[in-house]
UniProtKB/TrEMBL annotation, chains A, B:
InterPro entries: Homeodomain-like_sf, HTH-type_TetR-like_transc_reg, HTH_TetR, KstR2_TetR_C, Tet_transcr_reg_TetR-rel_C_sf. Pfam families: TetR_C_24, TetR_N. It comes from the Bacteria. This is TetR family transcriptional regulator. PROSITE patterns: HTH_TETR_2. PANTHER family: HTH-TYPE TRANSCRIPTIONAL REGULATOR RUTR, HTH-TYPE TRANSCRIPTIONAL REPRESSOR BDCR. One of its GO terms (molecular function) is transcription cis-regulatory region binding. Keywords: DNA-binding.
Length: 207, 207
DNA sequence: GCTGCGGGTGAGCGAGCGCTTAGAGTGCCC
DNA sequence: GGGCACTCTAAGCGCTCGCTCACCCGCAGC
């Protein structure tokens, strides 16, 4: 819903909407710390230290440590929905749209692995209310991918016996990239995106 | 209770090798607690309580909380290697062996989701030495699957442009089952195993 | 120059953590 | 029956956690 401030490289700074500056620095520090050590193993002192502030400064901008995780998770999931929705709504065949959805979603998980890790693996650390809100966003993610696959089946482009199961598998494959992707490894996010788009097209039996 | 280990259902009690009885009860309690809340969010008091013992009893059988995780992780990884090695060494075409490897590996992740979660997602909570040991087992897991895929390519059964990348994707798909399974209660481990075996055969271009 | 105010700090609170210690209960060999 | 080894507990140590509080600083309005 916000104006596009997107750069070409793109995914390094999706936190532009967070103000004021100190609140953003704390949030970025929290993302790094949560991704490295996990939510429960991260201390508020560590977060504040990474942001160059005292532990008490955190509580001027956020009520609790959990609110930080909630904010990160919501912004991240909104970005994920945005990526898939954009791909789903472009012009082209279902095959082209699915390839674009998978490759851009994978690029996001690989390139922004720090953020993606927190978004995908720290859901259980949220309280019930926050978790329910995030789960609603996840259902939107699922619906976008399922929509493309259904389009492909209707158009006769895909051969998919089990649409919900295949949707689950496609998303699972993309999400797990955040777990194993290594910045120092031999593959770039672009290469993984391309490989995965090809594998997914095979999974749906696209010609 | 005696040493009657493996039941027909099989995956509920792979902890028969852990003795004495109290040590096994503590370990099973730790698996449940780690899977539910994560390693860092689990307290030694919680583990001991689930096993019906006092907090101090834990330290008679294990030196530290981390040793519990280490033991769980090693036994779980050994089981994973065992499952894949068994599938890889059966008689049959590469297609049959890959299908068997994927379906049994997925069945283990889905049915023993509690254990699999700890094994797959708490690796970073281990210290450097323990992590190094576990990573060696993971390389064996990778090698088993890659071996089957290479066999299939050589035999002309598979069409795989990128063997290491496809191996990674196949394992990633199976492992991520531990994250999402039972959130959607409508599938049995057997059904997911069958679905995934089919999807993987499509990924490798099997006939 | 004084005041009000939003963003910041140093010190520290109560709680809960991983882990230890002193000692009790139980079975076994002599 | 006495000594010993093993298992387990009640109590609690030292520490670090998330979070709070009393106070400070730079700056805009008057």
């Amino acid at each position: 819903m916000s104006a596009a401030e997107e750069t070409a490289g793109g995914e390094a700074a999706p936190w532009g909407e967070v103000t004021p500056d100190a609140a953003r620095r704390l949030l970025v520090a929290a993302v790094e710390a949560f991704a490295e050590r996990g939510y429960h193993a991260t201390t508020t002192r560590d977060i504040a230290g990474r942001a160059g502030m005292s532990p008490a400064a955190l509580y001027i901008h956020y009520k609790t440590k959990e609110e930080l995780l909630h904010r990160i998770s919501r912004i991240g999931h909104e970005k994920a929905v945005d990526i898939l929705r954009t791909a789903a709504q472009t012009e082209g065949t279902a095959t082209e749209r699915l390839a674009e959805a998978v490759s851009s979603f994978v690029r996001w998980h690989a390139g922004g692995r720090t953020t993606a890790r927190v978004v995908q693996y720290e859901l259980d650390s949220l309280g019930p209310d926050a978790r329910a809100e995030i789960l609603a966003l996840r259902r939107q993610v699922d619906a976008e991918v399922r929509g493309i696959i259904e389009d492909g089946v209707e158009a006769g482009e895909f051969d998919v016996p089990d649409v919900p199961g295949t949707t689950l598998a496609v998303l699972s494959l993309c999400i797990d990239v955040a777990r194993w992707f290594n910045v120092n490894g031999s593959r770039t996010p672009d290469e993984v995106g391309e490989l995965y788009a090809d594998l997914v097209l095979r999974m749906v039996g696209a010609g």
